[in-house]
Amino acid sequence: MNRLTADTLHGIWAGVTLAWDDAGAFDEAAYSENTRALCDAGVHGIYTTGSTGEFYALSFEEFKRMVDIQCDLCGAQGMPLQIGCCSDNTSATLRLLEYAAGKPAVGAAQVALPYWMELTDRELLQFFKDLHSACPALPLVHYNIPRAKRFLHGSDYLRILEVAPSLIGVKYTFAGSHFAELQESLLLTPRLAYFVAENLLASAMLLGARGSCSSLVCTDPAYMLTFYDHAVNARWEKASAMQQTIQRFFTEIMPFVAARGEGMIDPVFDKGLAKAAGFLAGSQRTRAPYIGWSDATVMAVREWLRAKYPMFLHPACRT
After folding, report:
1. What are 15-43's pLDDT values in tens digits?
2. How far is CA 24 from the centre of its chain?
3. Whether pTM exceeds 0.90
4. Taking each helix axis from N to C terminus, what angle separates 266-277 and 295-308, rounded to the nearest 10 degrees?
């Protein structure tokens, strides 16, 4: 078993995008190629089926095939793996969780709260209790995101750990607007591994965060791996400079893409950016109702990157 612990959960984790063919079917060949490329790049772990991974778009049969591919590839290379097991109800989440739990290559499951209506305290604790009871040996990582209607903090995690001691980490999104709460959560629950987005990695690691669940790593992975190396080895001046570059990058690219009138949600933006960078095999398509970038926007972003941020281009695309 390659199960993760809070101590072994760290580094730059790559959110691998799903791949769809011309008919909208799961493109297993492109998906496998992208997973191999991330393994070869030396990322610290791979996670699947969050927002960027279009968890909501997969049938259960496709989910099982996706898990099998990941387990075969990551298992062969000893790559730590989290499987996203997200749904809008407990029963469906448990179905995903139980399939992932049966795979020795799966290090943890990343779970989100059922998101259609906000959970009460009682419902929140019961949800995590049900997950832990069903698969007590499978570590859990909470995908903490405001889209789930309820954003959790350290005091919530203290109570959750009482009913679900298998919780080992938190993907703490929107840390910029919740930075004080992140600091408090790190102090209240030091036994959990907290992960943030790229644009706050150095600042959060100074407080005790363990790494980043990264989409930017799917451009040229070397930048994010170097960034983490500076931070984990307390080369804070270099890490801070790289963080500022990343923040400036996102501040500038968002209006550039928005002005073209195309999608900005996670799977559309992240997949389009990875395609523009030259890293992504397959298409930038997303499953309906969401629409991926046009080929013209992909190429426009590539030229923009070449002119302004070549470090986020695959080396073969820089000239």
Report:
1. 999 999 999 999 999 999 999 999 999 99
2. 23
3. yes
4. 60
